[in-house]
Write a structure and sequence with these properties.
Order of helices and strands: HHHHHHHHHHHHHH
Shape: globular
Helix content: over 70%
Mean pLDDT: 89
Strand content: under 5%
Number of helices: 14
Radius of gyration: 21 Å
Amino acid sequence: MATDKSSSQAGSSYRDSLKSMDTEEHIDLAFYRPIGYMWACLAARLGITPNAITIASIIIGIGAGVAFYYPVLWINVIGMLLLIWANSFDSADGQLARMTKQYSRLGRILDGLSGDVWFATIYVAICLRENVTSDFFMSHPWLIWVIAVVTGLCHAKQAAMADYYRQFHLYFLKGKDGAELEDSAQLRRQIEEEAPKVGFWKRLTMKVYYNYTVQQEATAPAMQRLRKELNDRFPDGNVPQSFRDAFRVKSLPLMKYTNILSFNWRTIALFVSLFLQMPWLYFAFELTVLNILLIYMVIRHEHVCNSFISQLKDGKY
């Protein structure tokens, strides 16, 4: 019986390290989350913080990007393994934070920054590689850099909105404490209050995060109207459970799109392009498939939000 109890507690701890079954991706549940949980348990025993794991993931991810510069398959495979390792650390930092309650805005910023640094390195590596291996891009060396910059901007928007919609879903599923849903107006007030008291780097970090949040809000105007409507009607934050459940039902089908716009499917496309020795195909995938999916997701989510605004005004809740 003691063994069963211990096993049950371990299983419960693993479940506690997940965001929610609504928002977890199948590949993550089958692969990254179990590995991340093992890293998180080891880090907890050694006293390693989530932010330290995030910084380690950034370093490993940069190494992966460098390996993709070389048009040699076995070196590329090493890069793939390094990128998988980096992402297991990226999973572990969040799981460790949830297990040990070591939440911080800096941790959230670092977590988002890690993926940006990985892919910035990968983009540069692909550009340099294409300029020395592709006859076309050798003749037009500037073109691949333009494509990379446009792709990077699209990537940033895709990842930001995927995260935003997940956090909004978690807000209705778990409440305010279960989501990392920010409000730009509150962030601006906080910056104005804290700016004279903190150093340059803290102010810079807060301003970057504020701009990031503003961009998310600007892309989802109907969501902002819904948030305002809920704040006006339920200023104490006690949104009726019936509303939470109804919104969750409509939001849940969109979670699969947020997951596709995150890490796993990007890296599958990246690895395929590397195996084909045509890394530029990865840019094409992000610019076409993922942008189409982003537009569809935004339109669908805005429609859901507008529908619930109408229901609130009609007095259904």
